[in-house]
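User: I've been going back and forth on whether these two constructs are worth ordering. Before I decide, could you fold them both?

Assistant: Sure. I'll take them in the order you sent them. The first construct and its structure tokens:
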Amino acid sequence: MLIIIFLKKITLLKILNFFKITISYIISVIANKPITWGMPYSISVEPTNFCNLKCKECPSGLKLLTRQTGYMNTTDFINIANQTYKYLLNMFIYFQGEPFLNKDIFEMIKYANSKNIFVTTSTNGHFLSPENCYNLIKSGLDKIIISIDGTTQNVYQTYRVGGRLQKVIDGVKNLSDTKKRLKTIKPYIVIQFLVTSYNESQISDMQKLCKSLKVNKLELKTIQVYDFINNANLIPLQKKYSRYILKNGKYLMRKQLNNRCQRLWNATAITWEGDVLPCCFDKNADHIFGNLRTNNLKDIINSEAANKFKSTILTHRRKIKICNNCTS
């Protein structure tokens, strides 16, 4: 089902751009020098960095972001879509924060859909009222990721602080029922289950819940931890669900960090203010390549700042703080 939705939005130019970016990345790794041909084929756009929850490892909800908070306006969003639609294989309309707190979210999705962009959004699921679900489907959204990290309220709230599990479940039902009523296969519904030590015993229960909710897919995701002093207890006991290992009393990434990262060529993240960042791990916008209110994306991804960052990735990636918690 998802592949059919996706293929309908593929064009020859998008395919050619995909190969240009991929080839330039391979050459960059071999030459140990940044070369960028083409445009990012995946971008994350931030409708807002406000959030209604206080999830334990989320700098947005905990109000720990060092940058300003605010909402993207439709003018900036249209500018982004107009510059990228010819090349994009996917647009994620989320970054930090809860997308549905932006009152213009449905207009943003609708405009991106009108430009033949495959659109995905991600939500904590607290705003899926019948009316919002109707507007969401009518906007043309292709895929939605809904976070549910437990099958009981007491387990769910160990991470989603301030969240109400039943409200999220009711929201998923609203979306599934509205899809059925409107006789549409979109959006493709994914339930994201962030595996922690508290909920890893509920994985089978979550599989049953997803089946009863008639969602399209359940994705199990490893938790990202910044504060090991206070939140190391969140790390699951089952190794296959953890991105960390404990060595000499210190938590380390299980995956080796190599001097390369294809994501830096394939994708980019854009804040609500229009700042272009290397990726979604740059939550505080510490590495701004440029701003789309004053420059175009093509110039920004080939700017001195972008090339300098890519050079460091290819030579001394461990020196970049945001990379040290990355699974890529």
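The second construct, handled the same way:
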Amino acid sequence: MNLEQQLIERLNTLAPNHLEVINESAGHGGYFPGKESHFKVIVVSEEFQGLRLVQRHQKIYAVAAELMSPGRIHALAIHAYVPSEWQGEAPASPECAHAPKG
């Protein structure tokens, strides 16, 4: 099972109404085909009800902890919402200064 699939499996434990896991590794330095190092996750779940943003992120980091070790996930952009906050679109990721040129 690849890293993206493992991340999806773990995030599904938060009972999401909506879940997107986007591998953004190709936009970062040192990329090669098949590399899995940078991800953006969009998680909409009732599990976040009453939690501050930092607490929502902590919940996500807790379920993804073993995937966040050296040589695995290097960066995780988190967008965590309760259903009433979700507008159908998360912010775009910024360009990486070390992205491959060309």
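Notes on the second construct follow. The longest helix spans residues 53-64. The radius of gyration is 14 Å.
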